[in-house]
Amino acid sequence: MRSQSKIRNFSIIAHIDHGKSTIADRLLEFTHTIEPRLMKEQILDDMELERERGITIKARAVSLSYKGFTLNLIDTPGHVDFTHEVSRSLAACEGAILVVDASQGVQAQTVANFSLAMEQHLKIIPVINKIDLPIANAEKVMKQMKNIFSIAPEEFIMASAREGRGVPEILDAVISRIPPPEGSVEKPLRALIFDSVFDNYRGVLIFIRMVEGEIAPDTKISFLGTGEVFITTEVGVFKPELSAVSKLSAGMVGYLAANIRDVSDVRVGDTITTEKSPCSFALRGCKPAKPFVFSSFYPIEGTAFEDLEVAMKKLRLNDASFIYERENSPSLGFGFRCGFLGMLHLEIVQERLEREYNLNLITTAPSTVYRIKRKDEEIIEIDNPARFPLGAEIAEIQEFYVKVSIVLPDEYLGSVIKLCKDKRGIYKEMKYLDEATVSLTFEIPIGEIMTDFFDRLKSISSGYASVDYEHLDWRSSDMVKLDILLNGELVPSLSSIVHRSKSYERGRQLAAKMKDVIPSQLFAVNIQAAIGGKIIARETKKALRKDVTAKLYGGDITRKRKLREKQKKGKKRMKQFGKIMLPQEAFMAILR
C-alpha cells in the first residue's frame, strides 16, 4: 500500500508568459520523468494550438518521482479566460507554486490566481523566475509580493527555468512545505472528477483525484451527480502518457476508463463512489462556469451539421466551461448557440473545432447576456439579439457588471483611465504597488470589455498593462437592439444589443464596414442600420457595372439607350429576387 505521507499534489499558477510551462519542463527533466531524447519545449502543452500561441489552454497532470516521493503536478493555464480551468485544478491539490517574472513583477492574473489558491486553503510556494534576464529585478518583485501577499522573505525561491537554476529547491519545497493529502484508504470510495477527455477506443477517460478509499479495474462505480453506474475497465496514472496500474488509492491523482460512450454521462466536479458501498456526501468540487460571451456556430455546408454536433459533444467533454444548444437561422440554416468565458475562449474553441474535427464554420457576432423585466413582471435573460422583445413590452433592461483590475506602469495611467471611461467604467480604486507600478480598479459592463477592450489596452500601454476581472452584479441600463437591413430585409445574425449613447456611432461604423466587406453584386445593395423602425445610418454598395454597349459599333444613340434601359429593368428585377451571400468577414466586422 502506498503511504499517503509520500504523496504531494500541487499546481503551478502564474500570469501568462511568466515561465510556468518552462518550469514544468525543468521539473520533468530533473526528475527523469521524460527521456532526454523525447524532451521538447512545453512538453505538457501537447495541443498544436498551444505550441503555436505559446500559451497553456488545457490543464495537464503528470506524476513525478523524487527522493521516494510521488509528486502529482497539475499544470494550469495563465489567461484570464481560463480561470475556471485553474479553479478545477486547484480543487485537486494541497499546494501551489506561484511563479512571478523577475522582470515584469506582479501582474493582474498573479493576484487573481493567488486569491483562487487561498480560497482553496492551499499552501503557496512563491518562485521568482527569469532571474537570469539582464532587466531582472528580483529585489523589487520580492518587495511587491511581500506587500501584496504578506509573504515572508525566507519563503521565496529564486529560479531561472531556462537555465535550470532553482529547480532542486522547488522540488524540496514541495516536499517540505506542502502537506500530504488527507483521507483514509479504509473509508468508502470518494473521488473528484477534475477533467475528462474522449478516446476513440476506450470512450470517455475521466481524470480523478482520489480523496478516500481505493479503486481498481472491474469496480462498479456510481456518479453522485448523474446517478449513472459503470464498471471500470482500467485505472492508471500520468507519466505523462497514460500508464495503467493495479489500483488507485486515497491521495493519488490518476485516470479511469469504464467504456463510457455518452459524453453527457460525465460532469466535471462530480463525485465518484462505489455502488456497493456509497459515500455519505459529495465533494465540494469547483464552482460551475458561467459563460458571459455568446456566439453561434454554423457549418458552411449544411450536410456537416451532424459532424458539428458530434464535435461539440466531444469538445464539451474536454472543455466543461462552454455550453451550447441547437439553433436555426433563416439565413444560415441549422447551427449551435454557444456560451464562452471570454473572447479568447471563443477564438480557441472555434479554432479547435476547425482543426481537430476538419469543420468549416461561420461564426456570428458575439454578444453577452442581458436581463429584461417585462411590463407583466416576467424576468427573462437573453443572450441572442433575435430574442429581444419589442420596446413596448420592456419595463427595465439590466446588464452585468464586472470588477476590472488593471496593473500597469504609472506613465500610461491617463490613457488607461480614459479608455475605461470610454467603456462606461465606474472608477473605484487606485493604489501603488511600488513607486512606478499602479493597480487600477473599475466597474465596467461586461459587454464593453467583450470586444476590443483588451487589444486597445495593450496598444495604449505598449503591452505593459495586464488585466483580470471578476463578476459583480446586474444593473439597470438603457440598452437598445441595433438591426442591420440589406435591401430592406432584416439579417438577424447581424443584430446586436448596444447602449443607446453609442448606438448612432456604432450604426454608422457597421454600415460603413458592411459596405467594405460585402461582395459587389449585379444590383445595388442598400445597407441600413436601424433601431426599432428608425433608420440611423445608411450606405449603398454600388452594383457591378457591365458595359452592355461594348458590342455596338456606331449607329444611332437610341440603340445604346435601349440596351441600358433593358439592363436597368433587369437589375431592378434582380434586386427584387436576388439573394446576398454574406462572407464570414461580414460577421467578424461586428466583432471588431
The CATH topology of the largest domain is what?
Rossmann fold
Low-confidence stretches: none
Give the end-to-end Cα distance, rounded to a whole number of Å: 58 Å
- Number of discrete helical segments: 14
Task: Using brief descriptors, characterize the structure shown.
eight-stranded antiparallel beta sheet; Elongation Factor Tu (Ef-tu), domain 3; alpha+beta; Rossmann fold; 31 strands; single chain; Alpha-Beta Plaits; 592 residues; 33% strand
Molecular structure report:
- The model has no long low-confidence stretch (mean pLDDT 80).
- The chain is built from 14 helices and 31 strands.
- It folds into five domains: 4-177, Rossmann fold (3-Layer(aba) Sandwich); 190-274, Elongation Factor Tu (Ef-tu), domain 3 (Beta Barrel), CATH 2.40.30; 293-363, Elongation Factor G (Translational Gtpase), domain 3 (Alpha-Beta Plaits), CATH 3.30.70; 370-476, Alpha-Beta Plaits (2-Layer Sandwich), CATH 3.30.70.240; 480-591, 2-Layer Sandwich (Alpha-Beta Plaits), CATH 3.30.70.
- The chain starts with 6 loop residues before the first strand and ends with a helix.
- Helix content is 27%, strand content 33%.
